[in-house]
Amino acid sequence: MLRLQRRIHRALSVINQINLMDLSIVIPLKNEEESLPELCDWIMRVMQANNFTYEVILVDDGSTDESWSVIEKIVSINSNIKGIKFQRNYGKSAALNEGFKLAKGEVVITMDADMQDSPDEIPELRSMILKENYDMVSGWKKKRYDNKLTKNLPSKIFNAAARRISGIKLHDFNCGLKAYKRKVVKSIEIYGEMHRNIPVLAKYAGFRKIGEKVVEHRPRKYGVTKFGWERFINGFLDLASIMFVGKYGKRPMHFFGLLGTLCFLVGFGMSIYLVISRLMDPSTGLSNRPPFYIALTVMIIGTQLFLAGFLGELIARNSPGKNFYLIEKKSGFDN
User: Are the beta carbons of 36 and 1 closer than 8 angstroms?
Assistant: First the structure.
């Protein structure tokens, strides 16, 4: 009986692989009622020209215009198009995360709904994933039509810093037009405003072959931009968070404990020096000297950092994901 169940499971796994559609296209949007019909028609033409099996997942992130009504109308006409409507605005990361959960394609494409990304880029992006075996390909909008001060300048500064910190050689981390292997989007979780740093998330999930393709950036045809200078600071904070969690998420004591120990030893060393100075020269003050309070403060900070590491370790050890690891392959095991 057990062997029969295993064989059925294997057969179902093979069938699922065979039934995978070519592409899932995930499009987060907010207040894009004007662009949606034209964008979906364009995508459909590209899919039909290349004989792709596909789905388009439109994620309405709390639009206040008629975007959802437009989506419902498009869905009723084209069964390959699906819609998700958030009850309120949660952000682009949340929209992508929900789209990734439901994506069924062998290759997953993300793009913006504002018509600044060209669907004509999709076939080549898919080819890079399948034929050149990239885990992920990020678009590079080499020639941009955005405001130079509010979008281009912050983007260049952020991208330069992200390249240096993460070691990933991309020119445009935040480009909405990207392609992924299916297993990449199923292995990462995007929250907050982490969508700017998906390449870094993919790297820390073990996907190392991350490529880049120069893509067309079209002038905005409808609506107004929904991002500006505020994303500059948020991007750096999110990047720092990813780098820290990726490296020390399962062993916080290695970070906080080390810093705490070093601080405590520095403060303790200063205290020993002050005590020895006092013993050798009774006329030398102790508690009335600034180094005494510096040493005391450093020791307290060291103790607090060590305790923070200890608490972090307790939380990590009791976390449901403490032993969750991404396994690429297995050999010799029964499914």
Answer: no
Cα–Cα dist 36/317, whole Å = 46
Residues 26-71: pLDDT tens digits? 999 999 999 999 999 999 999 999 999 999 999 999 999 999 999 9
User: Contact at 8 Å (CB) between 107 and 85?
Assistant: no
Residue identified by tokens 């305790």 is 307
Could you read off the pLDDT of 221-233 as tens digits, one per residue? 776 665 555 666 6
Write out the two tokens for 24.
């899932």
Q: Helices 67-77 and 36-49 sit at what angle, rounded to 10 degrees?
A: 30
Query: Are 80 and 27 contacting, i.e. CB atoms less than 8 angstroms apart?
Result: no
Partners of residue 82 on adjacent β-strands: 57
- Our measurement of the distance from residue 250's CA atom to the centroid of its chain's CA atoms, rounded to an integer in Å, reads 18
Amino acid (1-letter code) at residue 118: S
- Do residues 27 and 63 lie in contact, with contact meaning Cβ atoms separated by under 8 Å? no
Rounded to whole angstroms, how far apart are CA atoms 232 and 227? 10
Residue 174 to residues 45, 136, 193, 228: CA-CA distances in angstroms?
Answer: 27, 14, 11, 13
The whole-model pTM stands at 0.73
